[in-house]
Each structure stands twice: as C-alpha cells, then as structure tokens.
Amino acid sequence: MTSTAKRVIGTAGALVVLVLVTISVFGQSGHAGPPGGPQGAPSAAKPQGSPVAEASTSDAKVPPLASPQNQEASLPAIGVLDVAAGTYQAKVNGYGEVTAKHVLSLTAQVSGEVTRLSPHFETGAVFRKGEVMAYLNDTAYQQATATARAAVEAATVALEEERLQGIQAKDNWERSGLDGEPESPLVLREPYLHAAQANLDEAKAQLKTAERELALTQIVAPFDAVVVTRDIQPGSFVQSGTSIAQLYSASEAEIAIPLSASQWQNLPTTASLDDQSWPVVIEDMDGLNQWHGTVKRIEQHLDTSSRQRSLIVEVKQPLAGDSPLYFGTYVTAHVAGKTYDSLWEIPASAVSQKQEVWYLDAGNKLNKFTPNVKFQADGKAYIMPLAGMTEARIVARPLNSYLVGTRVSPQSTGGNA
Known about the structure:
By secondary structure, the protein is an alpha+beta fold. The chain contains 6 helices and 21 strands. Helices cover 27% and strands 32% of the residues. A 6-stranded antiparallel beta barrel has the order 2-11-14-13-12-15. It is elongated, with a radius of gyration of 51 Å.
C-alpha cells in the first residue's frame, strides 16, 4: 500500500469518528443547542459521570411500566349475571290440537219424509241437549201408536175377565166338597190367567215401541252440540241409518298433548291425579289468547308414530266467552309440574351450542361444565347447581372460542341475557 492510500484511509476514518461523536452529542441533549437558543449554538458541556447526566441517560433508555388499571382494561369484557339456588316449579310445555270430546254422525232411526227443519239448523249452529233439529212425517207412527194402545186396553180387559173366571172356578171347587187340590191347574184356570197377563205385557211392549218410534220422528240433539255438517233438506226421504248431521259436543273440548320421557319426569305422579287437579294454561300459536283447563286423564300407551305418551287436557265450555276455543285449533299447553327446592335459573342463551355453561371463578378466569337441565320455560333454563356451590357468576352469552383459564373482565348484565 502506498503512502498516498494510507493518508486517504486515515482521513476517512477520522471523518467517521467525527460523525459518530456528533450523533452521540445530539442524542444525549435531544437538540442541537440549549432550549430557546439559536440552532447550532454551542451548548454548555456537562461533566462526564455527573449524576444529572447519568439520570438523563437512564430515563431515555428505560420505557415506563404499564399500570394495573391499564392491564385490567386490556382484558376482554364479557357479560355475566349472578345466580343463586332457589325454589322453582317446573313447567312442561307441549303442543296439540283441540278436538271435541264427542264426535257423532247423527243418523235417522226411523224412516220417513223430512217435513220441517229447525230454523237455525245450519252449520255452525249450537243446539242444546233435547232440542229438536228436524221433523219427519209421523202419520204412520201415530196410527201404530193408536193401534198398540187399543191392544193394551183389550189385553187389560181380557186379563180382568180371566181373573174373575179364576175366582169363580176356585169357588166352585171349594163348594164341590172334594178334598185336596185339583189334578190339573186348568180346573182353576191358572194357565189362562198367565196367558192373559202375558198378552197384556206384550201389548204394553208394543205400545212402548210405537211411542218410541213416534218420538224418533222428531230428531233431537243427543247432547249440547255444534253442527259441523247438515246432510238433509226439507222433503228428503230418510231411512233408518241415513246420515242427518255431523255433530261435535259443545260443552267440553279435549287436547291430547304428547310428552317425552324427560317431560314426564317433571310431572307429578299419576296417582296424584286422583287427589288433586293439574292446572293447564292453553295458548294459541300466536300467543294472543289464553284458556284454562285441567288434566282429565293420562293415556297408558305410546303413540305408534311419535312413540310418545299423551296426557288429555279438558277445557269446559270452549265456545263460550269473548275468545272461543275453536275445534281444530293448534295450541300450546303449559302444564304445572313438580317443585324443585334447589335450582339455578339462567337464560336459555347461557347454554352454548355445545350444551355447556361457562362461569367465572374467584380469579375472574373462565371455566365450564355440562349442565343438568331440569326444565326450560319462558326463555329460561333451570339447572342443577355445581357440587359444593350455591352461587355463581354465569356467562350470559358464551362463545365457542372461549378457552378454560382465560382471565377476563366481568361486566354485570343485571340479570338480563
């Protein structure tokens, strides 16, 4: 290497050292001159190793530590609600269709021409029990009744005559001086008396039949009924067995409510049905109207299609009142069930899609468990508390992304999901 090259390299090195020193001075002071002074003016030199210089250098290199408040604010916030064990009565909800207790295809029991119909014998009309719906021509039945009544009178006279002849025959036997009883009952005319009595009984039976057939020419409602269809017109000729109308009983309605095995477990025992009534609230599918009924009976077989057992709810006078319960309506039934002494009431939304419930431990860390849900009603789930716990902070709306042990910032929802 020549002397000229060595001089060039030395000069470049000196320039680099000068630049580094200048950068160091600017980094320590934070500006090129004293505050308020002109830029580029020389600053007062500070002694090396002085406490002031060392403190300034240390503050510039170490960042400030985060405060506990800032750390808490950085935690994810989730809504929780406080729950405590309480006493709740189970509500069992089911669905069914309103049907009539009695469904009857009313038929004629005698033949004849329809001469007249009741003025309100139309579909939708309500008839009271025994009220006449239609009239048949009864001329022939009037005649048959009169003939049967005459036969009864004649048989009555014949029986009385035979009774008197029997008395006279007995008197003649006693005056004959013969000892003992006659060898034949014909002597005292006893068989004739029995025959006359039998003739009278037969005549009375025929009269009763004739009177019954005469009464059947007036077709009456067998119970309080609503007319679903009418199958006759004035002038129609009907025979025994001809359909007159389709009737639904109007005094009671029944609703079959199929229930699952878990729902039956929340209901009282079948034996208690004889001791107390099971109240049921009936509600239409729109939730606009309500009716009250009671459990009438319980079916003792499983439905072949649903594989469920039904309880039968009865509603009295379904068509009365401002909001009639029409037959064929699909309804929701809310049945009062068993009473549980220790349950947690949580929103149904607190049960995740994985059928898990999340809660916070004492350190505000997430934890979870699989709940034992006794029943659900009105958007609430009623679950058994965790072993050894009577109170808890339940996550109102858990997410699938939650991890056990994650520390969070709880936000009270005030008991609302």
